[in-house]
Known about the structure:
- The chain is an alpha+beta fold and 155 residues long.
- It has a single domain, classed as Alpha-Beta Plaits (2-Layer Sandwich), CATH 3.30.70.
- It is 46% helix and 12% strand.
- The chain has helices at 6-14, 42-53, 80-89, 98-118, 122-137, 149-152, and strands spanning 30-36, 59-62, 68-74.
- It has a 3-stranded antiparallel sheet.
Amino acid sequence: MGKMSPEKARELRDGGRHRVSPFTPQPGPRKHRELRFHPDFPKHTETARELLAGLPDMEVDAGLAPNCLSLWYNINDYTFEGIVKALTRQGFRLDNSPRARIARALAFFCEETQLRNLHGSERLIKKSNDIYSKAWEHHPHGDHDDTPPDLRQDK
């Protein structure tokens, strides 16, 4: 039996790409998102599906509801916020119910935070230990004695 690749392990862990909910925590750069369109514009869903399927490294499939699309992409290539903004600029109408807006905002925030952490300055991370050590040196400790050294000696 050969070695198991990370991709195969993820596939076994996740049970296939269609079983992973877009609302479960998704560590790593590969994301699955559910894009909901306004129910009054049913043709927007199919048109957007054709448009997004033409993008490289973007997987698009029918969503859980008739007016939804399931998207799989890498956040180093695309972000959910970028996809949503591009579609709305082209006239697509998304579901603007409170639940849909909150779900989109949460996905935007999570991806933005993950990208910031992935591409953050490693120099600051490496120096953080030095910063805390220097701050601790100037912090009064429990055994700190304010008495001048010459008066501390027993005479």
